[in-house]
Amino acid sequence: MNMKRVWLITIGLLVCAAMVFAGGTRQESDVVQLTFRQGDPPAEVQGLFAAIEEFNASQNRIRVVVETVPWADALNQFVREGQAGGGPDVLQLAFVWTKDLGSSGLLKNLDTIVRQSPPGAGIDDFLGTDLGFYNDSLFGIPWTVDTFVMAYRPDLLQSAGVNRFPDTWEEFLETAVRLSDQGRGQYGFGFPAGSASGGGMWFLANYYLWSRDKSFVEPDGRGGWRVGVTEADVAGAMRYFNQFFERGASPRSLIGVNSWGDPELVGGLARGDFAISFFPPPTFRNAASQSSVPLNTAMIPRGPSRRVSHLGGRVLAVNENTRHPDEAWEFLNYLLSRGVFERYTNFPAQESLLAELQFGPGEQGYADQLPHAITFKQYIESPAPVSGMWDATNREFASVYSGQKTPEQAARDLIRSLQELL
Known about the structure:
Blueprint (H helix, E strand, L loop, with lengths): L2 H28 L1 E7 L7 H13 L3 E7 L2 H13 L6 E5 L3 H6 L7 H6 L16 E2 L2 E2 L2 E6 L2 E4 L1 H6 L9 H10 L8 E4 L10 H10 L6 E3 L5 E3 L3 H16 L16 H9 L2 E6 L1 H10 L5 E3 L10 E2 L1 E7 L6 H11 L2 H4 L5 E2 L2 H6 L7 H6 L3 E2 L2 H5 L4 H16 L5 H15 L1
Parallel strand pairs: 1-2, 1-3, 8-11, 13-16
Antiparallel strand pairs: 3-14, 4-5, 6-14, 6-15, 7-11, 7-12, 9-10
């Protein structure tokens, strides 16, 4: 082979190599890197991490890096970063943060992109969208939802001849009494009845009143707010729950229990000390892991007007500062997909997926209850601080259980507190 031909081949190979190298470099530089921030302990969301790795492997245009910032720090940290022009591209938020962050200009307005590229099966398929709006514009897409349901021991109900879970509040009380055997230390219903700030009685009190179309506060129709319950409404709710103690369906020791995750309740259901308790999903899973027999869940009893519980959960939002809004929206939509929720053990905020997916043993009660759940939007919009209403409710209900006040006295004092908070 002559030298001229050798040089031509060598130059050709060098040019090809340079083209390949340049092409590879260009492709690498074209990959968009997004940061997604979530707040749950990594050990609890391994399925989510696996789903994100699957997204990264499924295409070569977007690479997602996951950050974990604990919930206790997440809001303040994002506000600091957002105000400085930084922060993650896509982030997980608590429902109640969306309005304030949207009004502060830290989240991207999603109105246009939702019209052009609707999420999931369409925005109307989502639960809890009312907390994603500010000034009629959407700033967050509901992602996961949760609520409380009744958790129970099927074996104990069967032993007592209870063939179906009670449907109404009245039936529920009678069934709890029937399931109680104080001589053996077994009680029909275990619930957090304590007076402390942040205790669980707040939820039960609201569910009972909401099922009668009553709310602690409501719009007055003239641009202001008013107390939405009468003394008779509140005293009736207090008498109802106090009957569990008076009729032996609940031990009075529960007056000192504030959290639904208290070991007395979780272990009590697992051991069979309680036939029924009142849990959100993580607490139910904790109890189920401790129980030697299968546990089950059922919907909250219905009142004369409706069956209802509160809707909690998380939303997904796009940072106003992102340089890649289209890619951020594409990834956000992926997080809404069925495939993610087949790995991620949370309940989707989409009614269509709630109907399609199969949930863990005993957890169907949550999927059944969630379409009947409502947010605390009305309370959040009122001038009365939710924390203040929560504290006053727990304090006054517990005062009835402990015998310090009559239902009438406690109801009067609670309404006075609500008026002061407004």
